[in-house]
Amino acid sequence: MTADEFRKHAHVLVDWMAGYMDTVEEYPVKSQVAPGEIFNQIPDSPPLQSESFDLLLKDFRDIIMPGITHWQHPDFYAYFPANTSPPSVLAEMLIATLGSQCMIWETSPAAAELEEKMMIWLRDMIKLPGQFEGVIQDSASTATLAAIISAREKASGFITNSEGTKTTPILRVYCSEQTHSSVEKAVKICGIGKKNLVKVPVRDDFSFDPVKLKEAVTLDLEKGYIPCCVVATIGTTGTTAIDPVRAIGEICKAHGLWLHVDAAMAGTALILPEFQWMLVGREYIDSFVFNPHKWMFTNFDCTAYFVRDAGSLIKTFEILPEYLKTRTRGKVNDYRDWGVPLGRRFRALKLWSVIRSYGTEGLQTIVRNHISIASQLANWISLENDFEILAPVVVSVVCFRYIPTGCSEEEINSINEKLNHLLNDSGKIYLSHTVLNGKYSLRMVTAQTNVTIGHVTKAWELIKNTARSIR
Prior knowledge:
By secondary structure, the chain is an alpha/beta fold. The protein contains 14 helices and 11 strands. Helix 4 packs parallel to helix 12.
């Protein structure tokens, strides 16, 4: 492809991208294709001769687009948002064009130094203590893995990396029953083992019960185990419950446990002064993660991971083969030593673009609006006799169900599962679900970048009408 051809196709693509942003509401939110439908339209063998980019664009429109679920649709209410924004997309274009591999400072000094500054910006925006240092990871799962491995090394006196897990006593990791599945995956990967993950019961509001945590730690100590790490959550996946960081932190300090806080989605709300209560007890935190690629309008992937003691993190992950030795080592941040991957993308550029384009106040305005929409939705649900809210509404997630009269719990669960599928198959809205105390619950997340109260009003009418038409 020549430079002129590239320029021509790039203009076509930018026009399409802008048009997509303008018209995304015209698509079904959830893809309507059947399993295998896309796969069977793609040739079994690659072409022998080159094909035109125009043909690829045609196939993109005809084959790929019908199989896309539109996460940027304002009626996307499922899971958690994977928000983007025009400033983020434009920066991603620059990142792709530069094609930089930002593993160490020397491979792109600007990437390393911009990342360092962006982590300071974010740290101060969410009001973490000043001694925290940050690094951009690809996901909260990777950040949590880094935290648990760091905790493992601290608990073992930094010998597990060299001698293996069999040389140390049994280590134990604690989380609540509502904690994200990435914690279970991390203990499996790092060698601590799934059976040594203690899932502590939650309180009535689905938050971590510190009393039960203290009991679990005490019992493990009596058995000769080594308590290693506690994972608390600010905004659990199912309900966005807020774990009591201070109470958990006091237990961690008393027993020398590493405290990791997962604020993957709800952490963005910490830019609001009125939500700083979620971070009370921050003085006990050893590591903290949240995702700008969820609720800060920076497209995937961009995870902000902070540690109180960067030296421990680097000691855990650093390795220095001859081909990575540089004259600047020790003078700069070589972020390949701050986590699992060697290769790293220039993610800081899109974060810089978003924060500068919106400003802190602009970001706060959007996040506040999303939270107020969830509050209004919860109010509407509470006014209906045949619907109920199943968990406290803290930020932008509402868990609820339809409760027709004269039905058993089993029948109500079945009806709500059917309701969920009917709504999603309509293509008009997209919800996910969870199960709370045995009750099938619809989850509605009002945090997509461009969602308005008008979208949610229409969605709520659709939910009510569809539910009441089932019987």
